Amino acid sequence: MEKKNIDWENIGFGYQPTDYRFEARWKDGKWDEGKLVTNPNIELSEAACVLHYAQCCFEGLKAYTEKNGDIVTFRPDQNGKRMQDSAKRLEMPTFPVDKFVDAVKAVVKANAAWVPPHGTGATLYIRPVMIGSGPQIGVAPADEFIFRIFVMPVGAYFKGAVKPLKLTVSNYDRAAPHGTGGIKAGLNYAMSLYPTMEAHRHGYAENVYLDPATRTFIEETGGTNIIFVDKEGTIVVPQSPSILPSITRRSLVDVAKDLGMKVVERPVKLDEVKDMAECALCGTAAVLAPVGMIHTEEGDIYLPSGMDEMGPVSKKLRETLTGIQGGDLPDTRGWICKAW
Ligand code: PLP
Ligand code: COI
After folding, report:
1. Is this prediction's pTM over 0.90?
2. Of 52, 137, 176, 180, which is least surrounded by CB within 10 A?
3. CA of 279 to the centre of ligand 1 (A)
């Protein structure tokens, strides 16, 4: 198979239509078989529930070319499970996890020419999305749904991703107490668009959102979880029901334990950040990106790891996780799933 003629080392994180996508439709109370299609567009009723009432959830995962040339994905079953949790909370039908994994593999295989080669730093980003497509004018769930999986080659989510980022604590909330922060609903991202652009306009890469009930604890950013390393070298992971359960973060916790590091998962106060040694953002798109500074109302907090380099613990975690994903390190936990 001949690869597409792409400057793999220099691609950004953006939409690029590729050759095939998977589509399944829910009608009359059941999913159809689903199939690969070539049209990147979807025709919708003007009254489609997603357009008015944001009945939409999505996922994000990646395919990698391993050192030995195999094309693999990372823990796709976990994305399938999380998408079911999102769908349930939004009154959408669940898509079976085994069929989700099969569909992910089928789309990756069909678009193998778009999967970046090993060692380029680029990967194939996979975006499953489900929308309420049935017409609805009263506030109620749709009765028809479309589930799609499309893919595109991507580079780093944050420009110069291994350079420490500057963040700001947002005056806005991304999730309500007892709301939808813990699922991957499109509406959570609509809420974050204005604060994200405000952060960018002020020169920050992202927002740190606080817990919406008391605004004293650290939650996450608009598109990543946050982890800390304290001065004793312990990994400190903020815990809250309105944080999205990141698959990357959960994998990093396991990787850290395998490396013999101590991990504590608990609510983390904004007040504690000044005592931390390292801070990093983690997610599928972001991988693990170091944070150098966080702007707060009380002033700027500079992490001791500095603005030039990633801290040593973050570096070790990033190298180990990407090593497993790229097949340079052994996959002892069965996380790697061959596309064919
Ligand atoms: N938090 C938010 C709000 C996200 O959008 C994402 C991205 O998926 C994450 C965290 C990271 O989750 P994961 O590691 O499963 O990609
Ligand atoms: C991902 O990491 O897959 C996400 O969905 C985050 C998004 C902000 C790009």
Report:
1. yes
2. 137
3. 16
